[in-house]
Design brief:
This is Peptidase A1 domain-containing protein. The protein folds into three domains: 135 residues, Acid Proteases (Cathepsin D, subunit A, domain 1, Beta Barrel); 162 residues, Cathepsin D, subunit A, domain 1 (Beta Barrel); 43 residues. 18% of the residues lie in helices and 30% in strands. A hairpin with a 2-residue loop joins strand 13 and strand 14. The longest helix has 23 residues. It is globular and about 55 Å long.
Amino acid sequence: MSIANCHLHSFVGKVQIDGSDVLLLIDTKATDVWIDFTNDSHSSSSSHSFQMGLDHQIEAFDQVYQQYTGNDALPCNAKGILGLGRSATTSTNETSVLGHLSPLLKHDMFAIYATTTDDANGDVLSTSSKIVWGGYDNRHYQDCLEWNSVGQWEEEQLFKGGWDLVLQGAFVGGADLPDSQEALIDTATYNIQCPLTALEKIIRVNKLVCYKNSYDTLVPVDCVAGEYNVLALADCDAHFESLGFYMDGHTYYMTKDNLVYTIILPTGSHEKICALRLERSNTTESWVLGTIFMTRYYTVFDFARNRIGFAVRSEGRNKERCPDDWSEDIRYDGKPIPVPTAPPTVAPTSAPTITKNTTRNEQGPSMAPIIGSALLILLCFAFLRGGNRRRRRRIHESDNKYSLTSRHEDAEAPGLELM
């Protein structure tokens, strides 16, 4: 199911209700489906059909909707809320969205792949993120998923129906942060919310300055005064200490790239400010890890085993596959992970073999140069010396004897061996 990032603020996606597309805000801490019926004929007393993800044709019927008048506008003109909270029933004891989807999915889980693309090509509803139903996709994350148990508190307590985790510790720059006990994974919250005492320490360690918007003017305020809606600004070029979370034996880091948002001012001079993506929590001891946490960590919500899986999100298509995750991957076909085929082995090229010409070597060196030289000497000597025929005959016989002797000696010489 494709979803839009909506100004990097919230996730919204289209759901078919009774055959019509309705844009809904994705909310993992709610269990109900809320619809603004101001200009709609839907009635809460009747049931309606809905379809999740037009590309997957996942349908559930007889979903009961709660209605509201929409006094507070939702982001990106969304017409309601799609609750994906961890509960089989809604606040009115009706079957929840996950309760309806459970018998239709291969595995009772869904995964969120969240990118940082903001309104691609100026379209606020450009769908660069997605929800995967019934499993997860290893191509969207690196290495293997790390699982964290959820549901540590009773239903009547703080996070009813929410995806809550035990936060064993939080720290910034190696210093522990106080009031770190629990965390909620929430797609309807963009920033990270934290207790005031933790926020104060993060601001102090990173030497931030704070402002508050007063009639469209930024007014300096005390960062530790405990006010809400305070904008904390960082030096864009300064070092920023990472924020770490320790949950269920695993450590997760948020860096400056994740926690500081660069805003180019509309002055035409390329001026910029860098704003902190942390804000004060509405409760005293809880953290809320919003969508910016999911832009760093691919997140899997397993509502059958009450757990959440995290892995560093892959910027592109990850080609590696985790053996431990393969059985619930959406590409799983019942077969083991294919072993990459090794490239064909090319036999090394042998050096050319030099064949000895044993016949020629065994005969010894050629006699032609020796005979030719002897004849040339004989002719020159005869021409220079002159003389009668008898003397020429004697010389000729003598030279022939020399020639034959040399030929005989050369014939007995050992053959040359090619090295």
